[in-house]
Structure formats: C-alpha cells, structure tokens
Amino acid sequence: MINVALPKGRLGEKVYEILENAGYGCPAIREKNRRLIFENTEAGISYFWVKPSDVAIYVERGAADIGIAGKDILIEYEPDVFELLDLGIGVCRMCVCGRPDFRPDPSRPLRVATKFPNTARQYYAAKSEEIDIIHLNGSIELAPIIGLSDVIVDIVETGKTLAENGLVPLAVVNPISARLIANKASGKFKYDEIQRLCLAVEAEVENRKENE
After folding, report:
1. In whole angstroms, what is the distance from residue 143 CA to residue 149 CA?
2. Is 125 helix (H, G, I), strand (E, B) or coil?
3. What is the pairing mode between strands 82-86 and 92-98?
C-alpha cells in the first residue's frame, strides 16, 4: 500500500482527480462523509486528508509515503523529502508587494511583513539587502497600508486583493505550484510502487496540458 497525504480543500480535490484518472481511485472518497482515511486495497492506495501546511510533515516523518505540497511550503520549511513531480496545478507566485510609488529608504533596513520569513530572508540575502522581518499570520496586505512595513512577501494568485487595497506586485520571488513529494525511506523501500504511480500521474498531467 502507498499511503498518500492529500491537502484538504480545492487543491486536494484537484489532486485526487489526477490520481483517480491515473488509476489510483478510491470510490469511498467521493462519498459525503467526515472520514479522514480511505483505502482501495485493489489499487494498493490509501489516502488521508490533512491541513495543506502539514502535508510535508506527514511525509517527512514517514506517516505518509507520498503527499502533495505547495512549493511555497517546501521553500519555507525545507523538509527532508524527495520532490518528484510538478503537478502544474495550484499555480501562483510568491511576490514582494507594496504601494505602486514605493521607494526604499537607504538609511535603514527594509521592513518586510510576511507569513514566510525564511523565504523572505533567502530572497533578500541573495540580493545582499538588509531587512527587518515582521512575522504576521494574517491580513498581510494591511501592514504597508498602515505603515507597519514597507513591503510584504506573500502569495499572489489573481492580484485582486492587492489591487483592492492599493498594492501591486513589485518583484517575483518564486513561482509556486503543487508538487508530488515522497518520504526518503519510502522512496527506497517502495521504489517500484512509487515510481509506477509517479509515471502514471506524470502521463495524466501531460494529457491535461495537451487538452487545455
């Protein structure tokens, strides 16, 4: 059996559809219930739903053989896992955002509000820029509006929320999408099973691209 950690929500539903079409369906997961674990012994697959930000933890710790995590999570937390495949869904960008007329003050460190402090540090370290990290957990867009920060580093999908608050993307930090990841021990001891699944999923992903 391959144990799969699926992220709850729309992303997980899209991922499951890919896996189902690739031959790894589990009919019980389509039923209306509150179960968290689903198995299909014939397909050799077991699924369980977890919070998206926790998927990498389940995989790294071996509770799941494989899982689906956003590249933002992989960059921020750097879990010790194998990254197998870009699924091409959940596509967005990690961006530096601020007011359209923003100009940095060279006399002090740049104040950066973000939910992704490690990502922000890596980005500005590569630019040899000194920053003051302000770690927030929500309503990030508010920070530059009320003067708490100069800019924010956050995920941008459509840019609508930014525009409604008078902000714009100023620079792209990283492109983001959902990635298929594997536990390192599972990648060795269940190599054949995971490889078959990965190839089937890759074929389904390519098929979707061709039909778009």
Report:
1. 5
2. helix
3. unpaired
Residue 27 has pLDDT above 90, yes or no: no
Give dist(CA 72, CA 175) in Å, integer: 9
Torsion sign, CA atoms 6, 81, 174, 204 = negative
pLDDT at 72: 95
| Alpha-carbon gap, residue 20 to 38, rounded angstroms | 13
Residue 212 pLDDT exceeds 80: no
Identify the bridge partners of residue 94 per DSSP, sorted by sequence position. 155, 174
Q: What is the crossing angle of helices 10-21 and 191-211, to 10°?
A: 100
Strand 92-98: give its sheet, edge to edge: 131-135, 110-114, 151-156, 92-98, 168-176
Q: Across the strands, what pairs with 92?
A: 176
Q: Please give the model's pTM, rounded to 2 decimal places.
A: 0.90
